[in-house]
Amino acid sequence: MAGHSRSLRLAFAGTPAFAVAALDALHSAGFLVAGAFTQADRPAGRGLGLQPSPVKQRAVELGIPVLQPLTFKAAEASDALAALGVDAFIVVAYGLILPAAVLGIPRLGSFNIHASLLPRWRGAAPIQRAILAGDASTGVTIMRMEAGLDTGPMLKARAVPILAEDNAQTLHDRLSVLGGELIVSVLADLSVGPVPERAQPADGVTYAAKIDKAEARIDWREDAASLARKIRAFNPWPIAETRFRGLQLRIHVAEPAPGDAPAAVQAPVPSSAPPGTVLGLVGDAIAVACGQGLLYVKRLQLPGRKAVAAREFANAQSLSGAQFGGE
């Protein structure tokens, strides 16, 4: 494969950590990456100094020239891509709109690594939306890019299960590696000849809207299973939150109580405790009443403090009569 792969000259576009695994995979497979496009450096950290994107950092380490146009709508950016003389343009979570004219510049076209099984979860946040929806599986799709939002024909896809303990970070990490493996496979095939493409089905289209921080607020009237999915989907960002005695309380890890058996709670449990009522410690978790079922909260964090295990939290805070939510 390496012999064929070296015959392809590529450009790459990506910005966050998710894209780094694909860049590494292309480099390791022997492809010539003539240039890496990434978004402009952004203020970050306490000093708000300009920080390069994860893709820029990795490209510099690999000796790949970095290009950071503010937009691809200007001629300079498309001219820069054309000047690289590449066979294919690989795009992964880049974050800038690529006009149709740009997508057609490379000889073989432009290809995207998307973290879902298209046409489900087109858009910005497919990993979080799949967890929120309770999907049993998700995956990665390699598609040919066109003007629409994640609408292009598919060259290859592979599914992975969403594990009960998966949060957005663990699923992100598995899918990013899988994306690198799949794009290398597709390009190895393309270096030999045309690869069959399949149009996305019209049925089953869903959209993965960008995560809004306001979504992180927990509504304890929801059922325990839904809240557990929210807590997993919003870890590591923005982290699901509630209120506790007037303070923000972030919940990092939780799961629905098995079998929803209130009798297992050590403290006496009202038969119809209002949603958000803290019912006491159960093993290594704090049991909280929900609209339906109990949520076992296992790791949580008060403002200005580090996240702690539930038992440590309970030792420091009196939970008698406590309520999560509200003010």
Task: Describe this entry's structure for a reader.
This protein has 2 domains: 2-208, Rossmann fold (3-Layer(aba) Sandwich); 213-316, Roll (Methionyl-tRNA Fmet Formyltransferase, Chain A, domain 2). It has 327 residues and is of the alpha/beta class. Residues 1-5 and 261-269 have low confidence and may be disordered. The protein has a 7-stranded mixed beta sheet with strand order 5-2-1-6-7-9-10, with helices on both faces. Helix 2 packs parallel to helix 3, helix 2 runs parallel beside helix 7 and helix 6 packs antiparallel against helix 8 (224-233). It starts with a helix and ends in an 11-residue tail after the last helix. It has helices spanning 2-5, 17-28, 54-62, 75-84, 100-103, 126-132, 168-190, 224-233, 310-316; strands at 9-14, 32-37, 42-44, 49-51, 66-67, 88-92, 109-114, 122-123, 137-144, 154-161, 207-208, 240-244, 247-256, 278-282, 285-289, 294-301, 308-309.
Provide the fold topology.
Blueprint: H1 2-5, E1 9-14, H2 17-28, E2 32-37, E3 42-44, E4 49-51, H3 54-62, E5 66-67, H4 75-84, E6 88-92, H5 100-103, E7 109-114, E8 122-123, H6 126-132, E9 137-144, E10 154-161, H7 168-190, E11 207-208, H8 224-233, E12 240-244, E13 247-256, E14 278-282, E15 285-289, E16 294-301, E17 308-309, H9 310-316
Parallel strand pairs: 1-2, 1-6, 2-5, 6-7, 8-11
Antiparallel strand pairs: 3-4, 7-9, 9-10, 12-13, 13-16, 14-15, 15-16, 16-17
Helix pairs in contact: 2-3, 2-7, 6-8
Task: Provide a brief overview of the structure.
This protein is α/β, with parallel strands linked by helices and 327 residues long. The protein has helices spanning 2-5, 17-28, 54-62, 75-84, 100-103, 126-132, 168-190, 224-233, 310-316, and strands at residues 9-14, 32-37, 42-44, 49-51, 66-67, 88-92, 109-114, 122-123, 137-144, 154-161, 207-208, 240-244, 247-256, 278-282, 285-289, 294-301, 308-309.
